Structures are given as structure tokens and as C-alpha cells.
Amino acid sequence: MNRLLTCLAAASLLAAPALAQQEESTAPYAYRQLDDPAAEAKAQGLMETLRCLQCQGQSIADSDAPIAGSMRSLVRERIAAGESPEAIRGWLIRRYGDYVSYAPRVTSLTWPLFAVPAALMLLAFLLLRKRFRRGTADMAGDDA
Amino acid sequence: MMAELGLAALWLAAALAGLQLVAGALALTTRGASLGAIVRPVAFVQGLLALLAFLCLIWVFAQTDLSVKLVALNSHSLKPLIFKIAGAWGNHEGSMLLWVTVMGLAGGFVALVERRLPEPTMLATLAGQAFVSLGFYAFLLMASNPFERLNPVPVEGNGLNPLLQDLGLAFHPPTLYLGYVGLSIAFSFAIGALVTRQVGPEFARAMRPWVLGAWIFLTLGITAGSYWAYYELGWGGWWFWDPVENASLMPWLAATALLHSAGVLAARDALRAWTVMLGVVAFSMSMIGTFLVRSGILTSVHAFAVDPQRGSFILALLAINIGGALTLFALRAATVTEGQRFAVVSREGALVVNNVMLTAILGIVLFGTLYPLFAEAMGAKVSVGPPYFNPMGALFAVPMLVVMAVGPVLRWRRDTLERNGKALALPAMVAVVGIGALVLIGGVPLLPLLGLSLGVALIPASVLPLRDRDLRRTPLPIWGMVLAHLGVGVALIGMGSESAFSVEKLVAVHKGETTHVGPWSVTLADIEPVAGPNWTALEGVLQVSRGKADPVILRPQSRNFWAPPQQTAESALLTRWNGQLYAVLGGEAPGAIAGGPGDGRWQLRLWWKPFVPLIWLGGVLIALGGVLALLGRVAADLRRIILRDKIAYRRERQGR
Q1: Which residue of A has its CA nearest to B369?
Q2: What is the CA radius of gyration of chain A?
């Protein structure tokens, strides 16, 4: 819950109404959906996983900050032009760095993020197996 | 005057906490045994003094005494009284004072009523509680004194962040804190039991009401926070995997696991070491959550503290408390035997799976939340968000939910699936039909599909434990379990439905123009200016109707606060049995020519979210289940205490 606040503060300080209008006119799709529902759904899916760089912990799909509006417009325009969501994500990452995407890629830095769930899986499996193997053996012993 | 009184009370409380720690620890030795008698009274008075300090803080906030620095920084004379009072804990210092107050009161209460455990265990428990409190007192008095005076006195205060000026949010932090601090009692019991090596069913029974209470508050706190984010932020999202949200989710996950393993320990004397471990982990998660939120490390609005001194202080506290507890655990774990055995297919077996899965989810949330901080320390910024947490969490949540449907009908110790096959056939069929129907509809992503079908299957499955029971004689805790599990099913349906079936509409309309979202038609009838106590707003008058029904009026606002200056969008919600219509008024739409004047159209953001209220209804049901279980446990305890007193009284009379 939280985050928005800084963002809104920033937005409201920077974006006096006139400024907001300018912002919106350079970003026509900030508050406008694409006409094709399939394309809009694609755009929405991508926007929900992109970070608003001006806010803390918010996606561009739920922010009033001007930069989020510009990015939404950019995403929608590019989707409308036929680009794939992953291509757009790649372009944004090249431009703004990994920080912009909420979906971490597997890199030399982020591999532990993916190793940990696997390790937890293994650990859970081993724990349960150990517990139940011994438990079952004892129970069988009880019955004998 | 009041500020000085509060500060004095705080110092005294801290001194008593020190006395409580020393006396409690010495009383465990043979030479210091006589000190044991003062520990309980000291714990009680310490709680009262902390309460006095907190009341003083509320007083200065209610009076808007601007000579107190904290008030000047966070309050404003024009604020409504309720938000002045809420402002007392809506900031770093005040919330830490609330923390020690609740902790002191809880400790005092334990000291007053808990007589089940052997006295040495109680002394160790209270000493442990004092140790943790002492750290927080030191933090308050040295690094964040809430009663600091300001000279010269400012003419007016800074005000409270408008987004926080909302009733829901005024009571959201204290609710979570009650949860966090309730877990501190569980932590202290775990420490006490480890020190005296008394880990058994009695320990679990003494700890359980506290875990239950904490868990109820955490559940409510998270539910309320999620709903607040949903209606206040104005974009219809209800969970963002934001670090601050995760900070509240992690203690909840640990508390949920602890609750279930304490149940096993109390009923079957199994899972001893594991339960103690979870007791330590649960409070550690509360402290990590507090650290994340309070240290400023996340730089979000919840992180009011930007002072690194505070961050390092909390980090040191964290290291001492968690490190110390884990060391103690490592030293004593070998002497805590595992307890009774059980088979794979048994109630205990299902609960072990639940515990392991919850802990794994906790591991993922913890790691995913902290990793970006590590990465940043290594010089690279990465973001970890929903695309990571959702699938990784589901990896463990899905098997856990399947086991949750089965577990409650199993018998303790050992059972067979064949015996329960018939009963479980219904939920299984519901799940299969659900999956089939959703696949036929098409376009539903995998996770919402799983959530929806598991949710509908959980509803019949959760009431299964009531079959073959005389409902009038069914104990309250069983009802609590049924209700809480039902709540999980209900919440899952809400989450799945919201993700899969929400309809969004962003439009710019003239006055009088009609637009459509889902089954609704929405007409912008008018735009009116309105004013509140510390804001002005533009209010959209929306006539909304479905089919031929009479229109209903919705009034979303775009508010401008002036202290501090900030804009917020107040959404308007229309709740129907099958969903919610969500309306937000944006600004005036820009004109067709760049930079030109507006053309009189207004931005509207509209959503139709089928069954979305079920998310929070489910959360409330879960908490209500907890309340029933707590009532049942406490009533049973009371009956036992009364019985014991009666027996003692008779003995005394006969002896005379």
C-alpha cells in the first residue's frame, strides 16, 4: 500500500494541471486504451510488470506519475505498431537497466533468485521424505 | 508538561524492564531464587508505565502541542481530531512507542494470568520479554525520542500525508503492530521453554492464544491494508508484492505455520523442536518487517526514517535478538526430543506438509524482498515483482492448498485415504468441473484458473470436518478451523476472478456522455466543486445503471489537500453481490492540439471487477475463524482455572 505516496507527491508538485496536459498530449495513450482488445490486453500485461521509475514499488499500470503515463503511452503505441511485449521489455531494459522490469532475467547477478526456489523445493522434499520415512518405519514398528 | 511526564514514564518503564530482565535471570539460579517474586509485578507495572507514556503522546497530539517536535512535524491544527490522534502513531517515533506499549502491556498481562507453566519457565519467558523490550526502549530513548521539544515553537505544523488521512489507514498500523507484538510473546515463550528445556504440550497451550491473537490481528491488518490500497490508490490493484506489503505478509506466513504446529504440539506432543523454531522465526520476521519499513532502506512512504543511525540501531537489535535466539536454539535443539511419531497419511502429516510449504513460501518472499537490496549493495539495481512472486509462490501454495482440502478430515496419528475417499470425492469433482469450465471459457491464465478451481473445491472441502458431528456439541475451535479454511477458499475465488475477469475502461467524456464498462453504462452527469476540512475537490456525478434498473449515483473525487499540498483521487465504489464497479475521476482531458486548451472532456477510469469483494470477505472470514478458535481455547482455559480454584478451595475447607 504505501508507495504511491512519494510518487503522488512528486506528481502533484511537478504536474500542475497545465503541465499535466502537456504531458498527456505528448503521451496520447497514457490514459487511453487501444481499440483492439487483444492488443490492449497484451499492453496491460506488460505494463503491470514494468516499474514506474519515479515511484517506489509501483508498476506503470497503477501510477499517476507523468513518467508512468509516458511509459504507458510508449508501450501501447509500440504494441499497436506490432512489436511483441518481450521486445518492448528488452528495449526498455537496454535503455533504463534491469530495474525497470519486475520480471527478473536470469543473469550472473540474479541467478540466486531462481536457485533459491529450486533449493527450497529440494529441501522441502528431503525434509518430508526423511520425516515420513522414519515416521512410517516407527509406526510399522508400533504395530508389530 | 505532558511531554516530560511521558518521557519520565518511558525512562521508568525502561528501568523496570532492566530490573525484570536481571531479576528474572537471577531467579533461575539457586542463590537468586528469592528475586523471582518481584518479576511478575515488575512486568505489570512496566506495561502500565509504557501505556502512560503513550497516553501522554496521544494527549500532546490531540492538543496539537506544537512545542513537541514530533507534533510539529506530523500534525496540523486544522486536522480532524481523529486524524490528530491517529497522527500519534502515524510516524516513526510514535509507532515505536506504540510497539513498546503493546509489548509491555502484553508482557504484563502474561505475568498476571499465566500460571500453567512451571515457574522457572515463566521467569525465563518474562526475562526474555524484558530483554527484547529493553532493546526497543533503548532505541526510543537514544535514537528516536518522541517527546523532544522544539524551540522556537512553530506557528503551524507540517500536517499528515493526505493519503494517510483515512480511517482505514488510521487503524491499519496499530492492528499490524498488535500482531507483531503478539508474536513477541510467542518468541519469549519459546526462549523460556528453551532455557528451562520444558518444551511440551503445556508450553504449546500457553503460547497458542497469543499466536492466535497475533495471527488474527495480522490477518485483519493485511486484509485492511490491501483494501486500503485498492480503494485509495485509485488503480484497482489490491496486492503489489511491494516490500512493505511483504513485510507484513512474512510474519503472517510464519504465524500461520506456527499456529498449526503449535496445534500439533498441544494435541499430540509432536513437532517440538520445529514449533520452538517457528516461534523464533515468527517474531524475527516481525522485526525484519519493522526494520525494512522503519529503517528507510526501502525509501517508500512507510519508511519515515531517513536517518541511517536508526537503521543501524534496528539492525543491531535484529542481530542481537535473532542471533541470540538462534544460538540458544542451536545449543538446546539437541536436548529437545522430537516427540511422538506419526504416519504420512495423518492429520499431523498434513500439517507438516502445510508447515513446510508455508515456510518455503516465506523463504521465497523473504529472499525476493531482500535480494534487490543485496543487488543494490553490489552496485546493480534489479526489481523483483509479481512476475516472480506469483509463480514461485504458487509452486508451493498449490500443493499446500490441495493438502489443506484433505488434511482436516484425516485422523490423528494414522489414517488412510480410502477411508475418506467418498467424502473427498465431492471437492475433487468440483475442482475438475471448475477447471473444465474455465478451460471451455478460454483465455483464463494458468494461475487464476488454479486459484478459482482450488477456491471452489475448498468450499465443500472446508465444511467436511463437520460431517458426522453433532453440530451443537462441536467445539468452537473446530468451527473456527472450518470458517478460516472456508475463508481461504472464498478469498482465492475473489483473487482468481479479479485477475481473470476484470474489465477496464479509460475514457475522456463530455458532461452528459455515456460510456460502458462490463455490464454497466456510466453517464457523467455533472462535475461539482466540493470542500472538506483541509481539502477542496472536484466531484464527478456519475449515473450508473445495469440493464433497465434505475441509475445509482457514484461520486468519485479528485482532491487537493493544502497541508501538505498534494492531489489524491478518491475512488467511488459500487458493490453488488457479484462484483464491484470502481470509478475514478482523473483531470480534465487535454485538447486535440498539443498544449492547447482542454475541450471540456473529463478523464474517467472505470473497472468492473467480478467477485472482487470476496478477497477481503475471505480475509475477514479467516480472521473470524481465528476469533472463534481463540474464544473456544480461552473459554476452556477459564473453565479449567475455575475448576482448579474450586478444588483448591474444597481442599482448604476439608483441611481445616
Answers
A1: A113
A2: 23
Question: Position of cell 482488445?
Answer: A37
Question: Is B146 inside a domain boundary?
Answer: yes
Q: Which of residues 229-248 of B touch A (CB under 8 A)?
A: 229, 232-237, 240, 242-245
Whole-angstrom distance, CA of residue A134 vs CA of residue B545: 63
Residues ≥6 apart with Cβ < 8 Å to B409 = B420, B423, B424, B464, B465
- C-alpha torsion B245→B251→B257→B259, nearest 10: -120
Q: What does the CA dihedral B100, B103, B105, B110 come to, rounded to 10 degrees?
A: -160
Q: Are residue A111 and residue A129 in the same domain, yes or no?
A: yes
Phi, psi of B19 (to 5 degrees): -60, -40
CATH number at residue A69: 1.10.8.640
Q: How many CA atoms lie within 13 A of B163 on its CB side?
A: 24
- Calculate ∠ Cα B450-A76-A52, nearest 5°: 75
Q: How would you class B253 by CB atoms within 10 Å of its CB: exposed for 0-12, middle for 13-18, buried for 19 or more?
A: buried
Residue B627: name the closest of B260, B262, B219 by CA.
B219
Q: Which grid coordinates belong to B347?
A: 492429520
Closest CA to B180 of B282, B279, B92: B282
The verdict on A84 and A113 lying in the same domain is no
Residues comprising chain A, all counted: 144
Q: How many helices (H) and strands (E) does chain B have?
A: 18, 10
Residues A77, A59 within the same domain = yes
This prediction has a pTM of 0.90
Q: Looking at the structure, tell me whether residues A142 and A132 fall in a common domain.
A: yes
Show residues of chain A in contact with B235, CB under 8 Å: 61-63
Asked whether residue B102 is assigned to any structural domain, the reply reads: yes
Q: Do A97 and B375 touch (CB under 8 A)?
A: no
pLDDT digits (tens, 9 = 90+) for A118-134: 999 898 888 888 777 65
How many domains does chain A contain in total? 2
Contact A113 B363 (CB under 8 A): no
Using the beta-carbon criterion (under 8 Å), do B384 and A26 form an inter-chain contact? no
According to the model, what pLDDT value does residue A12 have? 42
CA distance B400 to chain A (A): 12
Last residue of a domain, one of B133, B163, B193: B163
Runs of H (alpha helix) within B63-200:
69-74, 81-87, 92-113, 119-138, 167-170, 172-195
Please check whether residues A82 and A72 belong to one and the same domain. yes
B396/A contact by beta carbon, under 8 A = yes
SS3 B538: strand
* CB-based contact B614:B490 (threshold 8 Å): yes
Range of the domain at A114: 104-144
Residue B637 lies in a domain: no
Read off the DSSP letter of residue B534: S
Indicate if A9 and A74 belong to the same structural domain. Answer: yes
Q: How many CB pairs under 8 A join A and B?
A: 191
The answer to whether B337 touches B276, Cβ cutoff 8 Å, is no
Residue A69: per-residue pLDDT: 87
**Could you report the per-residue pLDDT of B402-445, keeping only the tens digit for each?**
999 988 888 888 888 777 778 888 888 888 998 898 888 877 88
Q: How far apart are the first and last CA of chain B?
A: 55
Asked whether residue B357 is domain-assigned, the answer is no
Question: Are residues A46 and A3 part of one domain?
Answer: yes
| Domain hosting residue B116, numbered range | 1-163
